[in-house]
Amino acid sequence: MWLRDAPRPLRFAASVSEIGARPLSDRRRWTIDQWTPSNASGYRMGGFFGAYVLVQLIWLVVSLVRARSRETNVAAIGFASLTAIVALMPQSHELRYYMVWMIVLASINLWHAARHSSKVALALGYLSAAALAMVLVVTHAGYVYPSGLTFAELVQRNTDETQIAALPQHAVACVAKAPYSLLWAAAFHPPRHYVVREAEHLRDCGDATQCGRWSGNAYVVRSPCLALRTGCRDRQGASELCYACRTFEMPPTIEQ
Question: pTM for this one?
Fold first, then answer.
């Protein structure tokens, strides 16, 4: 990226202005994460609609200059401070992490317009509606209607019912299937009751081989280990039970 070594404020300004972004003829001009190939000039930049941001900034400056008051001065200083903080934050050019900046800008303009003139507020509303219409046209309205997989299909595609069925009730399973580990939770597989512990890598799950057996990619806990865990909690003086308890705390594993 041409701004890789540039200061954070410069990258933030370029991203807000959408310099190097895909053309408006490309329906991927605006996406959820602004992904592009790593060698693209606008890699993970933009997302606020640069022209709309520019109009909002001009509107803010003109409005605050024309109607000077204590309230407008506080708003101006507050927004300037927010801009300075956001511009210096890590990855400030990835605007999805700092949507607060755009929300505050639009909110200040709406607040100021509504206080002084209903016609001005209406004009600002028309401006925002026009910007929204442009985004809908460019993206083919791809983000305003349900599409893709249903949640049930997502769970089915990224979990294994065979492995889940092999877990005994109230067992603990260590799942290393980022970013879909959450989908293995018992809440999405009724009426089963078990606990999921998420691990980034399989090695983080530890060694639970003394407490059960392997079934495919799942480590199934034997019910005696569950009983020993209860005994460990109730009888702190029983070292063998406590050892078994610690062994069980190394949960069963579901591999990537």
Answer: 0.63
